[in-house]
Write a structure and sequence with these properties.
The chain is of the alpha+beta class. The chain has 4 helices and 9 strands, in the order H-E-E-H-E-E-H-E-H-E-E-E-E.
Length: 232
């Protein structure tokens, strides 16, 4: 009786082992990557400008900086930009020690970010800001108002390229590409910077033709994926 029980247990263990071995059998697959790229003419820009003021007395430096920023904000209002598209980003007042003169001076900075949704206003806006007193352009970032739509198209192109790669690889093997096992999104968020020229902003009179100082060009919206396909 014990012998039969022992034999049955061994048989069950053997069957279980075979089932487990079959379940762990590697699935034939191919791993490929794909990239999708959509060229877009930007229709927006995020502009970051600053007013830097230096002096020997903290109170005077802060006051002068505030007065300049007030003129800058008034200049922005003249272009009738929506309030929600203009934001003070950073305010600072820092002591700076001069080791040679052995005394402190002060540096006040205020940074304003402007979302410009009409690039045709760029030159006129920048001239107004410089005339009002901004003395540093921190950043100009091109954007598209339809960025999500372009990202979706880029992702689809990336998947199509990955599938085509897989088809090319297995076409000489007499096999077919089956369902996707895994899909990994390797896309990195990146907004290209524009090439722009900051010229002397002296207006020289109202009859002067508007200058073009910004080469808009195109931005690339890119998506990258890694895909594992089953081989049939």
């Amino acid at each position: 009786m014990k012998s039969m029980t022992h034999t049955a247990a061994l048989l069950i263990a053997f069957v279980t082992f075979n089932v487990s071995a079959q379940e762990q059998k590697p699935i034939p697959q191919i791993n490929v990557s794909g990239e999708g790229k959509v060229k877009v003419v930007p229709d927006q820009a995020m502009i970051s400008v600053s007013v830097d003021t230096k002096g020997n007395k903290a109170a005077d430096v802060k006051k002068q900086n505030d007065e300049t920023v007030e003129r800058v904000i008034q200049a922005i209002k003249k272009h009738k930009l929506p309030k929600e598209n203009v934001q003070t980003q950073r305010i600072s007042l820092n002591p700076v020690y001069d080791y040679e003169k052995k005394k402190y001076s002060y540096n006040a900075t205020q940074t304003i970010e402007i979302l410009l949704k009409d690039l045709n206003q760029y030159d006129a806006l920048m001239e107004s800001l410089v005339d009002a007193g901004i003395n540093r352009i921190s950043n100009v970032e091109f954007r598209s108002s339809k960025i999500e739509q372009h990202k979706s198209e880029a992702r689809k192109q990336a998947m199509l390229e990955a599938k085509k790669k897989a088809d090319d690889y297995v076409s000489v093997l007499g096999q077919k590409v089956g369902k996707a096992l895994t899909i990994s999104d390797n896309t990195q968020v990146y907004y290209p910077q524009p090439m722009y020229e900051m010229k002397a902003m002296a207006m020289g009179g109202s009859d002067v033709a508007p200058r073009e100082t910004l080469a808009v060009g195109e931005i690339s919206v890119t998506a990258n994926v890694s895909v594992s396909f089953i081989l049939e």
